[in-house]
Every structure is written in C-alpha cells, then in structure tokens.
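Study this one:
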Amino acid sequence: MSNLKGIFFLAVGIALTGCATQEQYDWTAFEAASPRSILVLPVLNNTVDVDAPLYALSTLAVPLGEKGYYVFPVNTVRTVLEQEGLYEGNAIKELGSPTLADWFGADSVLYVEIDQWDAKYAILATTVTVDINYMLEDKQGNRIWEQDVTMRYSPQQNSTGNPLADLIGAAIAAGITRAAPNYIPLMQQANNSAFISGSRALPNGPYAIDSEQ
C-alpha cells in the first residue's frame, strides 16, 4: 500500500510540475503593436487543391470581425492586388508587410497558409483534414502572433443494430465524403481555435462588444 501511495504522489507531483512549467505565449510584441485593423491577404496554398485558397479566404473575415478588429474586405483586397499584377500568394508575401500595410493603411497583416487540405479513404472511413498556419505581422514587419491548427473530421454512422446495414451505411458515407468533402466547417473550426477559443486565441480587439477600449 505504501508503495502505491508513493507512486500516486510521484505521479501527481510530475503532473503539477508539468502544469507549472507549461510555456505561456509571449504577447509582448502583440501588445506593443496594439493592432486595430487587420489586412487579410490571399491565402497561400501548399496543396494540390486549387480551390482551397478561395474557400479558406471566405471564412476569415467574420471571426476576426467578431473578435473586435476592423478587417479590410477580403475580396476588395484581392481585386486590388490582382490589378497590380499580384495573383499568387508567395509573390504577394514577398512584397513584405510594410509595403502591404502602407498600400491599404493597415495596422497589421495576416498571412494564412494551407499545409494540408485533403480527404483520405481507409477501411470504410474517410478522414477530411485541414492544416492551417496563421501569422500576423505589424506594419513594420515584426511577427506579433502565429498559430498552427489541424482539424480532422470522419463521418460517424449511428448504429442500426444490423451489422451488415451499418457496414453498408459506413461505406456509403465514406464514399460520399471522399467524393465531395466539405472543408468549410473544418476551416471555420480552425479559425475558431486560432482566433477565439484556442490557447493562443487573439485578445479582443478595440471594437469587440465587451471591449473597454
């Protein structure tokens, strides 16, 4: 019994030590910049899905606005950049945040990069995955916040009590998901984790409903 107690208290001690030494995110640069507006750039795409950047871009403005920041209209920003001959995310990024922020009069610039955007089939199940990297820079080009978020979804079938029917149902659901995966809900969840509810969620902006600024 004494050995069990010793093991128990040792485990608790390790757990508490882990909690106590858990690294906290450094908000010094963000607080120094104190951004009021965010310029969301066209999304960089490292996948083979050519539609992914537009789908991802369409989900970004709302959660940032709800967080209390002024967000430049993303489609207007994209159109202005295209009129300048800038169609591709990497070419836009190479201009640098100081130039981009100056063009639009923005306090900060958000870069969003898609590292994974796919649906993989394995043993009567399809898993849809998005892996998104977010990086915010101030108008001087200093990195003031970053986050990487991975979200996965696999359709689940309710049991009918009939193993064969359940198997067929799982196969149908997996086939449908593989043929036409819906990435938008996953992207919305990734944004929610990055901007609102995650361990590095952005602080409320000056236009947040409950902001005292």
In short: The chain has one domain: 25-197. The two ends are 58 Å apart (CA to CA). Residues 25-197 form a domain with the Rossmann fold fold (CATH 3.40.50.10610).
